[in-house]
């Protein structure tokens, strides 16, 4: 299953010694109280570690360098309790590589109107210090996150926690390794791209492997191993035989079980956490891997079909960003298939030929083994279900030739309202924001792909922050999108990101 480091975040009180030791003592005490409170909140996903007051440029540089060198540190949270001269941060920021959040908060929630004096003003001047601190970020063009509000406000705490997940996505990005079994589908443009540029920008490793290098791993799986895993399938899922003989059905399922075991062994041995395949290049595989890939995605692997390597990287990224969230509803590969143009139930039916991650399923999951024209192999077994409902995002990372663009769209997942007995796949039905017409037109204008990395658990702000950290454009389609403004923004981005 997916495992990531038990990351921590450094909490750095930003201050100076202008007002004496008593004030500095209060800054340290207040910061400790804030950190202890935050660490008790369920919406804070990682441990926050309090650092001593940052008083001088030497201390600041040493603390930031420590964060960069600490493999368990995923980012820095700063808090300008008092006025904090920002020239002291220039050396530290010039070399800082870890994400940074400027937590623009204040120890006290309300102004003590009846007793406020200049001593109180001098000690509690986050409104002063945060602006001084923010200026140096703007001057140095250093990307960072600003979270403003009272530190006990649940909405503010949740926003900070969401940024922490984004920070983990930033530091984990260079660990994404994609194995490509065969090349991209012939004549398809949007699924391909510059793999060297992706390694330069995001740190991703994208390697090509002949499918025949995978075959020995699948063939070496014993009948007993495949049967044991098939037994697990039978315990977890219901069976839809479609009139098939039970023994024949079981054989189709065991083929997929052997593929799951074999593919995972290959990925583990060669240190990959995402992969793609191609239905047109299967070597001696008996079936197109479907159920096997669904299971691997549920374990945390990223996947993309038809040689698409950007989508598995993004799916893996989303799974990493939500890895320790007990309330997670799921992040998965998805594909646009067909529209429902009735205004009463406008939307897009999302699916794939079989590789839909059951982590997004709601209700019964069944196994079916039905014919598939693609792949020219025997009927593959696959998991069939319908997805959860609620707000989600669909994302597409595209290569525009000279740069990358991340497209993020808010969507509302709904129940189809009709049974689809002839469709043996996992499905999601969603309506894009602000509506099907504008949402679809904006997606097409932006050049978005038909494959998406989809998540119930992340939002557009988190993905925008991730994109900003890597210096790439992020085009967001949401409730407020209009086509005129969206097209204008795309034109401006051509200048800003060239």
What does it look like?
This protein has 498 residues and is α/β, with parallel strands linked by helices. The chain is built from 15 helices and 19 strands. A six-stranded antiparallel β-barrel has the order 11-12-17-16-15-18. Strands 2-1-3-4-5 form a five-stranded parallel β-sheet, with helices on both faces. Strand 15 (390-399) and strand 16 (404-414) form a beta hairpin. The radius of gyration is 25 Å and the shape is elongated. The protein starts with 7 loop residues before the first strand and ends with a helix.
What are the key terms here?
37% helix; single chain; 498 residues; alpha/beta
Q: Kindly estimate the percentage of residues that lie in beta strands according to DSSP.
A: 15-25%
Q: Can you give the helix content as a percent range? A: 25-40%
Shape summary: elongated
Compute the number of helices. Answer: 15
Q: Biggest β-sheet, characterized? A: 6 strands, antiparallel, barrel
Number of strands: 19
Spatial sequence of strands, sheet with the most strands: 11-12-17-16-15-18
Write a short abstract of this structure.
The chain is 37% helix and 23% strand.
Write the layout of secondary structure elements.
Blueprint lengths: L7 E6 L7 H19 L7 E4 L6 H13 L3 E7 L10 H6 L4 E5 L13 H6 L2 H15 L4 E4 L5 H19 L4 E5 L13 H8 L2 E5 L5 H5 L3 H14 L1 E2 L6 H24 L4 E3 L14 H9 L2 E3 L5 H12 L9 E10 L6 E5 L9 E9 L11 E7 L2 E10 L4 E11 L11 E7 L3 H11 L4 E5 L4 H10 L3 E5 L5 H14 L2
Parallel strand pairs: 1-2, 1-3, 3-4, 4-5, 6-7, 6-9, 8-13, 9-10, 14-17, 16-19
Antiparallel strand pairs: 11-12, 11-18, 12-17, 13-14, 15-16, 15-18, 16-17
Helix pairs in contact: 6-12, 6-14, 9-10, 10-11, 13-15
């Amino acid at each position: 299953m997916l495992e990531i480091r038990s990351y921590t975040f450094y909490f750095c009180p930003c201050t100076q010694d202008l007002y004496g030791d008593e004030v500095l003592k209060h800054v340290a005490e207040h910061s400790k109280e804030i950190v202890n409170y935050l660490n008790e909140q369920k919406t804070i996903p990682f441990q926050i570690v309090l650092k001593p007051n940052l008083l001088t440029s030497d201390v600041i540089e040493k603390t930031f360098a420590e964060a960069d060198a600490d493999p368990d540190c995923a980012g820095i949270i700063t808090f300008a309790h008092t006025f904090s001269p920002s020239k002291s941060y220039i050396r530290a920021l010039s070399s800082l590589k870890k994400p940074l959040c400027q937590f623009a908060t204040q120890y006290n929630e309300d102004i003590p109107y009846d007793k406020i004096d200049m001593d109180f003003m001098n000690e509690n001047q986050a409104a002063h210090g945060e602006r001084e601190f923010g200026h140096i970020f703007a001057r140095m063009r250093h990307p960072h996150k600003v979270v403003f509000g009272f530190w006990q406000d649940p909405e503010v705490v949740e926003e900070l926690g969401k940024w922490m997940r984004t920070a983990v996505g930033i530091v984990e990005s260079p660990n994404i390794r994609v194995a490509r079994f065969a090349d991209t589908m012939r004549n398809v443009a949007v699924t391909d791209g510059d793999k060297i540029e992706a390694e330069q920008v995001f740190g991703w490793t994208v390697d090509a492997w002949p499918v025949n290098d995978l075959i020995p791993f699948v063939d070496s799986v014993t009948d007993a191993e495949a049967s044991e895993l098939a037994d697990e399938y039978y315990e977890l899922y219901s069976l839809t035989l479609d009139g098939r003989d039970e023994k024949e059905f079981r054989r189709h399922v065991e083929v997929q079980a052997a593929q799951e075991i074999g593919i995972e062994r290959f990925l583990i041995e060669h240190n990959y956490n995402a992969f793609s395949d191609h239905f047109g290049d299967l070597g001696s595989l008996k079936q197109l891997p479907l159920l096997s890939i669904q299971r691997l995605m549920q374990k945390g692997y990223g996947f993309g079909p038809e040689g698409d390597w950007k989508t598995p990287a993004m799916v893996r990224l989303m799974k990493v960003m939500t890895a320790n969230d007990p309330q997670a509803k799921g992040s998965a590969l998805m594909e646009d298939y067909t529209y429902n143009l009735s205004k009463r139930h406008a939307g897009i039916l999302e699916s794939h030929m079989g590789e839909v991650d059951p982590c997004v399923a709601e209700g019964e999951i069944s196994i079916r083994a039905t014919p598939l024209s693609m792949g020219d192999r025997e009927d593959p077994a696959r998991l069939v279900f319908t997805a959860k409902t609620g707000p989600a995002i669909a994302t597409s990372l595209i290569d525009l030739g000279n740069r990358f663009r991340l497209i993020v769209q808010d969507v509302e997942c709904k129940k189809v309202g009709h049974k689809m007995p002839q469709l043996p796949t996992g499905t999601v039905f969603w309506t894009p924001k602000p509506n099907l017409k504008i949402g679809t037109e904006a997606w097409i204008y932006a050049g978005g792909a038909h494959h998406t990395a989809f998540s119930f658990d992340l939002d557009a702000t988190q993905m925008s922050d991730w994109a900003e950290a890597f210096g790439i454009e992020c085009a967001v389609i949401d409730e407020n999108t209009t086509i005129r403004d969206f097209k204008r923004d795309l034109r401006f981005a051509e200048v800003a990101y060239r």
